[in-house]
Amino acid sequence: MSFSAEVKEELAKYISSNKHCQIAELSAIIHYQGHLVRGNDGQLQLQITTENPLVLRKCFTILNKAFNIETLELEQECLQNHKNSVYTIVLEKEEDLFQIFRAIKLLDDEGVFHDLRDGVNPVIIEQYCCRRGFTRGAFLCIGSMSDPNKGYHLELVCSHKNQAQQLKEILKLFDLDAKIVERKKYFVVYLKEGSHIVDFLGITKARVALMNLENLRIVKEMRNTINRKVNCETANIAKTVNAATKQIEDIIFIRDYIGFSKLPDTLREMAMVRLEHPEAALKELGQYLDPPVGKSGVNHRLRKLCEIADLNRG
Question: Among 71, 231, 248, 285, fewest CB within 10 Å belongs to which?
């Protein structure tokens, strides 16, 4: 099971104890996967269509708890080129429809219907807890996450621009910096920061997924830190080896073409010590001198030897 599927499995099991939060979550399901249609007999129907059985489970549960609706018509269809079956919940009982429409503010007091494409009525998500419920329902219906082992990316795919813009504003209220990108005929609201995705999981009550993601982030950060240190140490070792190789080449040139006898005593001693200890660090080389010399003193003498070699090569 993918990480995204695990998150949805956890969210599907979470049922808020507050009716207004249940209504907010149902409102997300209806706005993102619901359609108002007329049946063959002209009767108004609410159809909720999904490929995800988890959405069905959550929808059935909320309709039962919040509206005491126990009997629903369910249609199943296997479309060509679809891996999964497509399920459609059909609500057409007038009494049930109108109590749902009024609860989610799809139908106002004057009997006017509001377009699902315009987004949810702000009254539904006015409270902080209801915004959490709505966001939970949104991810369950239209959300997905990449494998956190490969990267951090969470997205919610909306069919209409108004829905995407509203969803972005809702996430902004949670201090989540969501962006929108248009992809073919869809509008994708996305998060790419690992910390924001962790916060999103907390907001939607996916606590197990949150802990799993945090553990992965800690391991990744430790691995990255270790790699940075290893790379830094490797670079330093390479730099030291290259410098020592150059020093030895210059000292051999001086010995063969100039002669150590032409050097001052301090430089002659330094040249001989470096040849005897080609792998020693500067601080260690200083201990072989008589009297011992510090790291900066050794570096100064070696630099002088290099300058003498460079001048004579020219």
Answer: 71
